Amino acid sequence: MERITEDQIAQLSGFVFARIPDAALLQGEARRAATALRLAATKQVAAVRFHRASSPERAAETELHATASWNLLVALAQIWHDHPEFPADAAIETFEYDSESPLSTTEPREQ
Q1: 64: which DSSP letter?
Q2: Residues 100, 70, 92, 61, CA torsion sign
Q3: Tens of pLDDT along 60-92?
Q4: pLDDT digit string (tens) for 27-67?
Q5: How far apart are CA 41 and CA 16, in angstroms?
Q6: Count of alpha carbons within 13 Å of 60, Cβ hemisphere only?
Q7: Closest to 48 in 3D by CA, of 29, 27, 32, 69
Q8: Distance from C-alpha of 96 to C-alpha of 80, rounded to nearest angstrom
Q9: What is the SS3 assignment for 52?
């Protein structure tokens, strides 16, 4: 998590939130989907920021959750990977995942 900057967090979260439609303008399933996406993104950003604000003694306790939250936020952003404003420099996963075995991690990606 140390290599993820505040600027990257702001870029990626801003990009994701800008793509999620306003639930108040929607109805039915579309409204529920937009609400769920916004809630999921908000919780992921909060977990990352909570970890970054944690004291060094507490950071060890929050790092795994923050890492998973960041990776989920990256996955949400990748829904729109073909968008011209996609923040590729910010969308860095903390670990590379094997789609056949998503719970197995490998070494962090080099960027």
Answers
A1: H
A2: negative
A3: 889 989 999 999 999 999 999 999 999 988 888
A4: 999 999 999 999 999 999 999 999 999 998 888 889 989 99
A5: 8
A6: 2
A7: 69
A8: 19
A9: helix
Q: Which residue carries 């900057």 as its tokens?
A: 5
Pull the structure tokens for residue 29.
Answer: 């399933």
Task: Assign 3-state DSSP to the chain and report helix, strand, coil percentages, each to 5.
Answer: 60, 5, 30
CB burial of 28-55 (b: ≥16 within 10 Å; e: otherwise) equals: eeeeeebeebbebbeebbebbeebbeee
Return the C-alpha torsion angle 69, 75, 80, 86, nearest 10: 70
| Two tokens, residue 20 | 């999620």
Query: 105: which strand partners?
Result: 97
Q: List helix spans (H) across 20-81.
A: 28-53, 56-77
d(CA 34, CA 55): 34
Show the tokens assigned to 89.
């420099």
